[in-house]
Design brief:
Blueprint (H helix, E strand, L loop, with lengths): L1 H18 L4 H15 L7 H11 L4 H29 L9 H10 L1 H39 L5 H5 L2
Length: 160
């Protein structure tokens, strides 16, 4: 089941992008940046961030959104670690929160959640901004050779 999902939702769209003439490097950068923007520690902002990045850096919007979509669960898993790292970095008091608590808070009162989490979220964004370029670069290095190995006509990849 996972193999079918992976092929249908990730591999096949990437192969279609390669067949349209996009280079493995451009797709790898789109995927890497989409994954990193997809873990941005502010729930509900990643689609807009990825869209803006695709236009600003002239990257492929479908590729960046594929990575954003796949990073969604990781964003939730990393939310509290980003909060805690930010609290530690800026020597802030530790908020007694959980991922479920944050989501419930947002669902109950968006503005109240923003006010309550403002300082902690800003600290988390600083931590994310510090690690984002490194993670993007490492993902680019990982994705480029993987994309080159996808099962499409080898002549297509040689024409880069």
């Amino acid at each position: 089941m996972f193999k079918r999902f992976w092929q249908r939702r990730v591999q096949d769209p990437i192969i279609r992008l390669l067949k349209q003439g996009l280079t493995p490097e451009k797709i790898a950068l789109s995927l890497g940046l989409g994954a990193v923007l997809g873990i941005f520690p502010v729930i509900g902002t990643t689609t807009l961030l990825c869209t803006a990045a695709a236009f600003i850096f002239r990257l492929n919007l479908p590729a960046i959104q594929i990575a954003n979509y796949l990073a969604g669960p990781l964003q939730l898993a990393l939310l509290i670690p980003f909060y805690r790292a930010g609290e530690t970095l800026f020597n802030r008091a530790r908020l007694p929160i959980s991922v479920d608590g944050v989501i419930a808070m947002i669902q109950r009162d968006v503005w109240g959640a923003i006010v309550f989490l403002w300082d902690t979220t800003l600290c988390a964004i600083v931590v994310w901004a510090a690690v984002a370029p490194i993670i993007t670069f490492l993902l680019y290095l990982l994705f480029t050779p993987a994309i080159r190995k996808l099962p499409i006509k080898s002549a297509l990849l040689e024409n880069e």
